[in-house]
Amino acid sequence: MDAEGFFGLPTDHESLAAVSDRASGLEAIVAIHSTARGPAFGGCRYWHYENRDAAIRDARRLAEGMSLKNALADLPFGGGKAVIIRNPRQTDRQALFSRFGRFVESLEGRYVTAEDVGTTEADMAAIAAQTPYVSGLKTAKTYGGNPSPKTALGVFVAIRSGVRQVLNRRDLDGLVVAVQGLGSVGWDLCRLLAGAGCKLIVADINPAVAAKAVEQFGANTCEPDAILFQDADVLAPCALGGVLNVDSIPKIRAKLIAGAANNQLQSITDGDSLHKAGIYYLPDFLVNAGGIVSAVREYQGKLGEQQVIEEVERIGQRVEELVARVARLDLAPARAADAWARSLLVPTR
Ligand code: NAD
């Protein structure tokens, strides 16, 4: 196993488990980065990969991000992630996720799954028929279901806090925000931003959804490959990882970046480049924790929706704390957040 970790820094993962099942076509990997704070908790991605190595790399990188995210969100869970490699043999989705549920069950609670890109509440229900180690269920007793609206709320409060702290503006009225990707999170984020008086510039590779945003939010649109470079106050990447890199950074005009996409930086040095360019990057694993807060609290079954909302809103205070740490340590925000989160990878009780 190579030693390259999140952001290209050397790191360790506790374990990697894999399954390959002819009957259902399931090919899946569960990467567990850390269980120092508790069982590894992180979603299941259902995606096309060029090959198995690419899937393993993605699972490991995402698992490490989950360790940092869960730690900063003060959750009693470690970091893990599952990926299911899409292939044409997977003709029965119910059978696929049912078999994946048995795989999760075989890990005996060291990993808890939930939705991620490409998976749905129905998939979680199929998993739940096989194992209790799953969240994001519509049928949850107290509170639960698709975590995306809480992710969007967390991104919104992070932007609101960042705008106050970094851009020194009192409110969001008239602020121009460029949103890349109008999926489950991006769409809800646009709704919240529009409601707060922001002017939106949006792009999605699906032109129909972009057209709908024009109609519903009075947004302007641009081509998907131009959205990162718009004349906006804030950029919110809500589609893919790796969008902040040596090619894109010199062309970015926004002064604050905060979005939902996991692993937005291609490497930690891109965080340094943003800092040098005077662009304040609020790290994804701090900003997009609303969904995992939702999934964890559903899994624990103790809190109601209002309490979960209040917990998600604490992301705004964490942005304040990060800004204070950055000023004190004279570090790029990406480095300050990374060090802060890693210092919390210790048992919670
Ligand atoms: P989604 O699949 O519902 O939406 C992604 C959207 O991005 C789609 O509408 C897609 O058409 C669009 N898109 C893809 N490539 C694009 C491009 N090049 N330019 C513009 N648009 C493009 O996913 P989601 O659940 O909204 O998640 C978005 C991101 O946030 C992902 O990176 C995900 O890992 C991350 N995230 C999601 C959650 C959650 O609760 N859903 C939690 C944490 C992090």
Automatic annotation (TrEMBL):
MF terms (GO), sorted A to Z: nucleotide binding; oxidoreductase activity, acting on the CH-NH2 group of donors, NAD or NADP as acceptor
Record-stated family: Belongs to the Glu/Leu/Phe/Val dehydrogenases family.
Superkingdom as given in the UniProt entry: Bacteria
Binding residue positions for NAD(+): G181, L182, G183, S184, V185, G186
Keywords: NAD, Nucleotide-binding, Oxidoreductase
GO terms under biological process: amino acid metabolic process
Annotated protein name in UniProt: Glu/Leu/Phe/Val dehydrogenase
Active site per the UniProt annotation: K81
Domain Glutamate/phenylalanine/leucine/valine/L-tryptophan dehydrogenase C-terminal: 145-349
Role this protein plays: Catalyzes the reversible oxidative deamination of glutamate to alpha-ketoglutarate and ammonia.
Pfam family name, one: ELFV_dehydrog_N
Xref: PROSITE patterns: GLFV_DEHYDROGENASE
